Amino acid sequence: MTGPRYTKLIESLPSSVPFVAPEQMERQRGAPFLARLGANENIFGPSPKALEAIRQAADNIWKYGEPDSHALRHALAAHHNVGPENILVGEGIDGLLGYLVRLLISPGDPVVTSDGAYPTFNYHVSGYGGQLHKVPYKDDHEDIQALINKSKSAKAKLIYFANPDNPMGTFYPGADITAALSDLPENCLFLLDEAYIEFAPEGTSPEISTDDPRVIRMRTFSKAYGMAGARVGYAIGTADLIRSFDKIRNHFGMCLLSQAGAMAALEDQEWINQTIEKVSQSRTAITDIAAQNGLTALPSAANFVTVDCGVDGDFARKVLSGLIEQGVFVRMPFVAPQDRCIRISCGREADLEHLAKALPIALENAK
Amino acid sequence: MTGPRYTKLIESLPSSVPFVAPEQMERQRGAPFLARLGANENIFGPSPKALEAIRQAADNIWKYGEPDSHALRHALAAHHNVGPENILVGEGIDGLLGYLVRLLISPGDPVVTSDGAYPTFNYHVSGYGGQLHKVPYKDDHEDIQALINKSKSAKAKLIYFANPDNPMGTFYPGADITAALSDLPENCLFLLDEAYIEFAPEGTSPEISTDDPRVIRMRTFSKAYGMAGARVGYAIGTADLIRSFDKIRNHFGMCLLSQAGAMAALEDQEWINQTIEKVSQSRTAITDIAAQNGLTALPSAANFVTVDCGVDGDFARKVLSGLIEQGVFVRMPFVAPQDRCIRISCGREADLEHLAKALPIALENAK
């Protein structure tokens, strides 16, 4: 008996998995982490009103969630002062990235991103056979002008750009992005990943009309809203582009509990303001811990701090291993020269105490 | 300014949406349904232990769910007496169907299904450019021998077969499927959708070794487990086939609450037995209501009853409209001659009272 016939594209894809889950690392080390500071989750959690909404919605779990996330979509439209036809709700930004790549990218189609930017975007591009053109970071920022230049020379159909950036935490003022867009080539879609935008200073998010067919923006309830486990992301774009997702998406893909939780979380903006303040304090605390160890933290506009370990990727990987061995889950950039850094998600005081204790030992052992 | 460049395949796809949600129909009619009996949801709901697990898990919603659904996958493996490497958990069977089609189907690749079978499967096949070959139903059953014959002549890469069938509720004994498989052509994957299997008589699910590369089986927590809103489906297949999904799936696509709820629901098999009994009683009640109105209910092995309205599609569509106007949400097969029927999901006594009241009026008005 012989097996199924995969497509040629599928056969060409690697079997590797983008991220190893912290739970798997815990099983490998035989003990739970003392501090979970690696996945840029928001340990301060969602609004208690969101939790209450989830618990209430559980009684309706026998029903399918609305395939168009009607109520949430309308609430998001009001929140952003756009039309509901400009909003698509999906299974996290990861899910939306997959759908968007599928809409635009056939095998061989050129796509531009930064070398070391979000690996899951690259995973989807490769998964549809797209050809990735990677532009180096410049001074630990994504290089927006170089990305646009590359998209011209490569005739790219899609540019990925995160603001604030992950894994570096750096950002551009929105006005810089708006200015750069004036130079965008025809028919190239600019994908603006704003997963961390709520943590950034006023003015970081560019003003972009929902009539502008050159841009799609993505946001999430996984970060500031503290609901990574709910898998709720959304895209903002032209009505045409948003409608096109209906041709391919998993219409009944949204968890009803997550829809209800996101609705309530969105309404509680006071909680978001408190979260932003807690994250800001945590960033300062991580920066201080880094400085106490002779390390430089990069200024961050996200809910993590990227800390320059001062040498190179080999050294930073040793520091990372040392932290993980001591029960402090952190991650790090994959690509040089950014991989001289480790990336530490914001946490509570107790989490950062574990970090403060483990970091000097990890540094000492890495020498 | 010009818009994004979609792939040729995307441009060729229709903009229509597979199912209109009952909530949208409610908005259109300006009133909620009195009885929600159209989507084959399980109104008897999940185990209270599943609800408790969801409410407990809410406190962890700030974390991403495990990308490999480790705990649930291992529990399912034990439940089915297979290896965890033979189980893939995904965003409902709908999500898994999309992934499977993507693994196998390139534009033009032949796929076989029954004419009038699950539309979401067809949606995914069309979405990846596959060529659908449809075989007529035979006596309101999917015609397994004709499906296999067609897969030979069309050189199909994939056959879709649901047992029990939706929308007709009919089924084959598992031994018939095992026997038919002996005639399956080389390299054609047999996709066995067992969404409704828990409601069917003993022996309906065929014995198939997880070493058998010809078959993938799909199951769900949406039906017997009463958790449609949670979006948890799973596939059982060879380790090779299961692993291949890792090349393309949304690794962080599962809701953490849903994973926790499904774990607890799986453990409470006593609740499932009670649900099966309630569904059985409801099937009898729907059959009686049909008979009181001079209509014949098809014998059903699922949580719905398909009722032959005795004339043709036009007549049945009028009956359906009449029920919906009266606040009774039901659906019907899309394709002749099955579309002489309407499909009524099992419900509680109160739900069926609405049906009993509305059906004679709908029939009278349809004449």
TrEMBL record, chains A, B:
InterPro entries on file: Aminotrans_II_pyridoxalP_BS, Aminotransferase_I/II_large, HistidinolP_aminotransfase, PyrdxlP-dep_Trfase, PyrdxlP-dep_Trfase_major, PyrdxlP-dep_Trfase_small
PROSITE patterns xrefs: AA_TRANSFER_CLASS_2
Pathway(s) per entry: Amino-acid biosynthesis
One Pfam family in the UniProt entry: Aminotran_1_2
Keywords of the record: Aminotransferase, Pyridoxal phosphate, Transferase
Segments forming domain Aminotransferase class I/classII large: 36-359
Keyword field contains Transferase: yes
CC cofactor: pyridoxal 5'-phosphate
GO molecular function: histidinol-phosphate transaminase activity; pyridoxal phosphate binding
PANTHER family (UniProt xref): HISTIDINOL-PHOSPHATE AMINOTRANSFERASE 2 (PTHR43643), INDUCIBLE LYSINE DECARBOXYLASE (PTHR43643:SF2)
Protein name as catalogued: Histidinol-phosphate aminotransferase
Organism annotation: Roseovarius albus
Taxonomic path: Bacteria, Pseudomonadati, Pseudomonadota, Alphaproteobacteria, Rhodobacterales
